[in-house]
């Protein structure tokens, strides 16, 4: 756990970057810090590994006060990923990743073997390891940045807008990859972003700051979306707050029935009972597209399909893509409403 108690940071020029911050960041969870520009997110993050020293208050990592540890040693024991990856331009990708293990006194061979393993973990080929950072795309460089931060297997990972400089498609891929990695690695991650959608997607808890370094609310995303503490938080979450909450709920509990037969729509299946398309009764040759969904797809995706498809129906499939049933727009709507009520009650 990372624990801030009454932490204050005032820079010599008089700027208060962080104001009386008390915050718990749970072990093995992703805590996302969000808020408008200049609200103190980066300063908060950098105080954890002592790149910035607090003016007052205490910060503990795993129960130990950070100021009582050697700063260089502390920094080596905490992974740090920044925007643009911050790679050494004149070292190969493999040597970039091996940097920290080497600093920690691992032999060159062991450090490079570990680096090669990590390349694969973050989804890069061995060939990419031989290249120099400028020979990789922005998204690939960010993957190397993540691999380098993981090289010493630190329990804590600090990530400062790590995916801020890549296009939205690559950004989504990197987010997926981080979620996959986190399932395996269970690191305590502190993640800074401007992007509330990214925060909702990645965060187990989201801390929202406002200018002057004030923490306004820290809560799991569903709680934040269901019960924002004030208008500032509600505005920050945006007008589509209700839909964002549905992106965190799955389709699993929505009832499903058999595919309709002999009605206005027929679901055409292949020989293994995988949905191909819908056929309208009056023009059976027309092929109306179907987007089958699985139990772990979101309620938002289900709502989208139920309004986008003229059938008003959502075809449900198992992990192999085989039809399990069909849900109606009404069922999905009702569950969407119920998800909101439950989130408000639970919060
Ligand atoms: N070294 C410094 N000296 C003086 N003021 C600073 C210093 N570093 C940051 N600040 C100020 O402290 C405040 C908080 O900065 P910080 O970088 O933590 O904000 P942020 O929320 O991370 O912003 P952004 O989203 O734009 O990166 C800002 O007003 C900034 O100008």
UniProtKB/TrEMBL annotation:
<dbReference type="GO" id="GO:0005524">
    <property type="term" value="F:ATP binding"/>
</dbReference>
<dbReference type="GO" id="GO:0015418">
    <property type="term" value="F:ABC-type quaternary ammonium compound transporting activity"/>
</dbReference>
<keyword id="KW-0813">Transport</keyword>
<feature type="domain" description="ABC transporter">
    <location>
        <begin position="2"/>
        <end position="237"/>
    </location>
</feature>
<protein>
    <recommendedName>
        <fullName>ABC-type quaternary amine transporter</fullName>
        <ecNumber>7.6.2.9</ecNumber>
    </recommendedName>
</protein>
<dbReference type="InterPro" id="IPR027417">
    <property type="entry name" value="P-loop_NTPase"/>
</dbReference>
<dbReference type="InterPro" id="IPR003439">
    <property type="entry name" value="ABC_transporter-like_ATP-bd"/>
</dbReference>
<dbReference type="InterPro" id="IPR017871">
    <property type="entry name" value="ABC_transporter-like_CS"/>
</dbReference>
<keyword id="KW-0547">Nucleotide-binding</keyword>
<comment type="similarity">
    <text>Belongs to the ABC transporter superfamily.</text>
</comment>
<dbReference type="Pfam" id="PF00005">
    <property type="entry name" value="ABC_tran"/>
</dbReference>
<dbReference type="GO" id="GO:0016887">
    <property type="term" value="F:ATP hydrolysis activity"/>
</dbReference>
<dbReference type="InterPro" id="IPR003593">
    <property type="entry name" value="AAA+_ATPase"/>
</dbReference>
<keyword id="KW-0067">ATP-binding</keyword>
């Amino acid at each position: 756990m990372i624990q801030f108690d009454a932490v204050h940071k005032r820079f010599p020029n008089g700027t208060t970057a962080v104001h009386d911050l008390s915050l718990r960041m749970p072990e093995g969870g992703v805590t996302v810090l969000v808020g408008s520009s200049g609200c103190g997110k980066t300063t908060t993050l950098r105080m954890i590994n002592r790149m910035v020293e607090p003016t007052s208050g205490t910060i503990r990592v795993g129960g130990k006060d950070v100021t009582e540890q050697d700063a260089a040693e502390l920094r080596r024991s905490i992974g740090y990923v920044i925007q643009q990856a911050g790679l050494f331009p004149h070292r190969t990708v493999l040597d970039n990743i091996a940097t920290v293990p080497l600093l920690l006194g691992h032999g060159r061979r062991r450090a490079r073997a570990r680096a090669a393993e990590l390349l694969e973990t973050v989804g890069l080929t061995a060939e990419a390891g031989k290249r120099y950072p400028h020979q990789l795309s922005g998204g690939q460089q960010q993957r190397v940045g993540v691999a380098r931060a993981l090289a010493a297997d630190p329990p804590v990972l600090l990530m400062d807008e790590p995916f801020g400089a890549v296009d939205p498609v690559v950004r989504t891929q990197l987010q997926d990859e981080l979620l996959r990695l986190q399932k395996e690695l269970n690191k305590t991650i502190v993640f800074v972003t401007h992007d509330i959608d990214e925060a909702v997607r990645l965060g187990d808890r989201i801390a929202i700051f406002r200018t002057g370094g004030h923490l306004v609310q820290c809560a799991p995303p569903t709680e934040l979306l269901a019960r924002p503490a004030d208008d500032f938080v509600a505005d920050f979450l945006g007008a589509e707050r209700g839909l964002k909450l549905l992106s965190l709920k799955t389709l699993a509990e929505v009832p499903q029935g058999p595919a309709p037969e002999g009605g206005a729509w027929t679901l055409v299946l292949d020989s293994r009972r995988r949905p191909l398309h819908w056929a309208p009764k009056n023009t059976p040759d027309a092929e109306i597209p179907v987007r089958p969904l699985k139990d772990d797809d979101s309620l938002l995706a289900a709502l989208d399909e139920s309004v986008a498809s003229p059938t008003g129906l959502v075809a449900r499939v198992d992990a192999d893509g085989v039809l399990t049933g069909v849900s109606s727009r009404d069922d999905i709507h009702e569950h969407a409403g119920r998800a909101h009520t439950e989130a408000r009650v639970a919060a």
